[in-house]
Write a structure and sequence with these properties.
By secondary structure, this protein is α+β, with helices and mostly antiparallel strands. The chain has two domains: about 70 residues, no CATH class; about 130 residues, no CATH class. The protein has eight helices and seven strands, in the order H-H-E-E-H-H-H-H-E-E-E-H-H-E-E. Helix 7 runs antiparallel to helix 8. The longest helix has 14 residues. It is globular.
């Protein structure tokens, strides 16, 4: 793209897959596509209903995400509850989603981010990071974790999740690559290109 002199476009951003899925759903159901991002569109109404069902909380506020899609409110417990329901499902759409994440973890975040390392290191886990330092991870045994930093600083997100998992004994489970999980939580602070400190989670 760079070599060919191309320019940035929304179709190539990291949310484009989500939008492609929404548009495909509209086409399959015979819904309009010009206004698919409207909170009143049948697609968004269905998404909000599913979101409320999975989080166990009503959607009280609808904002706008950076990619233009409706952004639905929930407490921090909501994402943990939602991811847990996917992780423990044994059939149906929830099971299919969890199975897809487990079989293709690189499709969750790409090949270079800490999420792939974490999902690969903990068998049966599912998880996803989001904007403003949101992060949710759930294990096949039903344990689930969700975090959000007050200032939205993304660099502390993996540090906090790795610490939470270790504190909860997840790294002692059979089959878990504890070294890899801990590695996702290491964040060196550089001065002149050299490590001069680190950010650590404190309890």
């Amino acid at each position: 793209m760079i070599r060919d002199g191309g320019a940035k476009s929304s179709i190539q951003m990291n949310c484009s897959g989500k939008h492609a899925a929404m548009l495909a759903t509209c086409v399959l159901n015979g819904w309009s596509i010009d206004d698919y991002l409207s909170p009143k569109h049948p697609l968004q109404v269905a998404i909000a209903a599913t979101f409320a069902d999975l989080t166990g909380e009503p959607v009280e506020v609808v904002a706008v995400d950076g990619c233009g899609a409706p952004l639905l409110s929930t407490s921090l417990i909501g994402p943990a509850r939602a991811f847990r329901s996917l992780a423990v499902a044994t059939s149906g759409p929830s099971f299919e989603i969890a199975s897809a994440i487990r079989q293709h973890p690189a499709h969750v975040s790409g090949t270079t981010r800490d999420e792939l390392t974490l999902l690969t290191a903990i068998p049966g886990s599912i998880g996803k990071a989001g904007a403003e330092s949101c992060y949710a991870v759930a294990l096949a045994d039903g344990r689930a974790f969700a975090l959000k930093t007050d200032d939205g600083a993304p660099r502390v997100r993996p540090v906090l999740m790795a610490a939470a998992l270790e504190r909860s004994g997840v790294l002692d489970l059979a089959g878990v690559d504890a070294v890899a999980v801990r590695k996702t939580g290491e964040l060196a602070l550089l001065g002149g290109g050299k490590p001069v400190g680190e950010i650590r989670a404190c309890y």
